[in-house]
Amino acid sequence: MNNNNVIEVENLTKMFGDFTAVNAISFEVKKGEIFGFLGANGAGKTTAMKMLIGISNPTSGNAMVAGFDVFTHAEDIKKNIGYMSQKFALYDDLTVKENITFFGGIYGLSRARIREKAKELIDELGLQDVANQLVGSLPLGWKQKISFSVALLHDPKIVFLDEPTGGVDPITRRQFWEMIYKAANTGTTIFVTTHYMDEAEYCDRVSIMVNGKIEALDTPKKLKAQFKVENMNDVFLKLARG
Q: Which residue intervals define the domain ABC transporter in the entry (predicted)?
């Protein structure tokens, strides 16, 4: 594995019977990069992400994540990454503090380190007044920002974010991306799926999947120049229309 890369994928494929959900995709992601993984519903991006985070076995191909092989060291991958899903991230029936403590334990942090990280997170997000409230009582935007911070508790090499800003207001989306930039500036690699095409502009590089294949991969600036369009939404539309 190249020392500058934290993810290397070669001809990674996932089949369900006769259906090919992910079709021989190849790419690499560099340390500290914000890598956008885009595609319409059903394009295969979620299936691909599940293989990379060690919860779904590939049918064929090769992939290394955080220095570990997805076929043989899935458990090691899980210990070295953070993951945030739009549908499930925190426990609504636990308080903010209890969620931090629970996930800190899952990540193997010592009690002292969990207390230190909890104070750090609560102070940084300004959560002092709600730290003992149930997460279920908080607005979605707060939940998403807390979820992202919890995914960073164990200082992972890579954080995978699956549609992290879905359903939140524009101001919260902007604040969330400020958090992403801050994490990337410390050397954490961000692998993010999104259906907001304007968010593709915030990424260092973007890949676009269509029908299980990566049909475009480059910086937003170069992709717009390649397809002779003004924005990433038009790049996506051109690819989707074939």
A: 7-236
